[in-house]
Amino acid sequence: MVRLDRLVNVLGGYGLRLVRCPVPRSTELGSVVLHEQTAGRTVVGDVLLAIGARSVAEAVRWAEAARAAVVLVRDDAAAEPTGDEHPVAVIIVDPAVSWSEVAAVVYGLVVEGRETESGRGPTDMFALADSLADAIGGAVTIEDRLARVMAYSRQQQHADRARAETILGRQAPELLRAFFAARGVGAHLESSDEPLFVTEDAEHGFTGRMVVAVRAGRELLGSVWVTCPQPLDGAARQALVDGARTVALHLLRSRASADLERQVETDLVLQLLEGTADAATVVSKLGLPQAPMRVIASRVDIVEQERHAALLLAFDRATTGFGWSRPGRSAVAGTTLYTVLPGDGTSAARAWVTALRAALPADLTVMAGISAPAAADSLPAARQEADECLALHETRYSSSVPPAYEESWDQILLQRLRTAARSGRAPARGPVTELRRHDAEHGTHYVATLRAWLRAQGDTGEAGRQLGVHENTVRYRLRKMTELTALDLQDADKRLAMTIEVAALDSPSAQPAASKPDQN
């Protein structure tokens, strides 16, 4: 079921507003009814569409008779006092939004929404495209507001190269979109409900198009395109106009169902990642296999003021399509997009990140980290691994290939040590600290030399090659170090401690310092 709070939030996006709410926002809603009687009995349900109510008070009385928790009533209904004794929430419907559009959204959320958790998708847009093509007599394509193809007809009458490229790419090619923009198509769709004819153009490979806006109230939802060599008129033109209204209802229902599907998915994924529910049950609800999974943590960035919008766009792309059609399940927490992906190989996880990058605008930067494979009840730990790999990608990796935990655990361990050192847990005294202080005061390279010698496991020749100096210089520096501080290079435990401290205090980009043989 959908809660009243969710219904109010979604309807707010269509210009509807909650004006009275004496019932809890957590009230669950499971049915939608109109004001009517059958066999002498009032039809009852949780949400009442008060079509025809002459006042808010009358709508509330209808709702009480129907035992409804919430009533939707027109903005132009007389606003009579209703009193707080009536336990009915009142939502006002904007005059610019038709009852048909409101009904599509409410039914999509309350009625269809009950089945989205099991993977049910929205109304079949392809069947609608076929029906429109038959009525109009030309190939039909239905696109959303971002010009992404949502459905297309089987009929190929007047089909051309541009249509084929648009369908194959799931979006019109960039050059074709630029051409339409130059012809004023976008501006027309934003401002007019009348169909527009775009004449044929051999360079762009199309024979002509009739396009009409798909709108809900004042909001542009998308467009319907018909391939035709001449402008449509008469019955065909009217069929296109009427068809656009029908498409609007389908898009509203689709969006409402998809929105609820995302809410359910987000809640379940976060339960998995936080370990707050039975993992096997949640995995089953998400439609994922009871097998090893990886957690992918992603961040999407552009300019500072658009970071949140970029994250939401990435979430939209990651959750496009209903559960059965996607390999992973995603949720947004804070500034991070988390995806639970079945499989224990890194290639599939990296392919998922690559596909996300390809689906986003080119000016967005995607950074990601991939956990090691984990069972369902170990996903909270996998989330931490993914977070640390993401931090590693953001701070140390210039490559577009996101790091995976099993390949990068050593760098993550060092990163943890650096974090501990920055929090003030590094030794305040000791050989390494004293050598670092001496380097800062006298311009020597003792810490770099010690680091190279430890990495070379005591091989002065190899240490010299790392530093770009002769091995005798390395020996000289080591001797000087033992004179300056209590540096015991013979004790294995002390060598291990020095290795850890040097690594912890190194910056991520620290490399052995090169110097000339005559330098100390």
UniProtKB/TrEMBL annotation:
Q: Where is the PucR C-terminal helix-turn-helix domain?
A: 447-501
Keywords assigned by UniProt, alphabetized:
DNA-binding
Q: Name one Pfam family in it.
A: HTH_30
Q: Does the keyword Ribosomal protein apply?
A: no
GO terms for molecular function, please? DNA binding
| Annotated PANTHER family | CARBOHYDRATE DIACID REGULATOR, CONSERVED PROTEIN
Q: What is this protein called?
A: DNA-binding PucR family transcriptional regulator
